[in-house]
């Protein structure tokens, strides 16, 4: 967005807030900088929503002119309140972790518990609570789901032995990023080799 365009939108947002405060009979402080308005116009709020968010941001700032980050917080809280996140996931579903857990980006996991806007998921080496926005579904058939659950159980059995060497962990960390449910012949041989080494 060009600077001049941003200035024009900021001015329009300012007048929307000013008009809202006037019609509501409020004496809240008005914006003093273009940057304070940025989270509001970037969220494409209606004139009334812009006013409601500004009042919320002033509340966060305890009656003072809110900072950019306070307005951003108010926009996020307002949107979550008005348009609550619907959790699309179900217990037992196999998903991919997009972000939010260090070292687990692009790893598959199994949903063990569903909450309002987050899921508790199990991986082969731990349990994590992740926002629904950081998960994506993996489209598997029932048979493929059983295959990946079996793979996860085999990986967990190895992990629970403890004291796996670097090469073993390297194999397991590779398997946790698979996009398919079935191992190829090399992956199967590597996993069996680890099972013979650590579990027998």
Description:
The protein is elongated, with a radius of gyration of 25 Å. The protein has helices at 3-23, 34-42, 47-60, 68-82, 142-159, 166-175, 185-198, and strands at residues 94-97, 108-114, 118-123, 126-131, 135-137. Helices cover 50% and strands 13% of the residues. The chain is α+β, with helices and mostly antiparallel strands and 200 residues long. The protein starts with a helix and ends with a helix.
Task: For this entry, give a set of tags.
200 residues, 3 domains, 5-stranded antiparallel beta sheet, 7 helices, 5 strands, 13% strand, elongated
Strand and helix layout:
Elements: H1 3-23, H2 34-42, H3 47-60, H4 68-82, E1 94-97, E2 108-114, E3 118-123, E4 126-131, E5 135-137, H5 142-159, H6 166-175, H7 185-198
Antiparallel strand pairs: 1-2, 1-5, 2-3, 3-4
Brief digest:
This protein is 50% helix and 13% strand. The protein has seven helices and five strands.
Query: Helix and strand string, N-terminal first?
Result: HHHHEEEEEHHH
Counting helices, strands and paired strands, the structural category is: alpha+beta
Strand percentage lies at 5-15%
Helical content, roughly? 40-55%
Taken together, the total number of domains comes to 3
**Beginning-to-end CA distance, first to last residue:** 63 Å
- The number of helices is 7
Shape: elongated
Number of strands: 5
Mean pLDDT: 93
Low-confidence stretches: none
Which sheet architecture does the biggest sheet show?
5 strands, antiparallel
For the CA atoms, what is the radius of gyration?
25 Å
* Strand order in space, largest sheet: 4-3-2-1-5
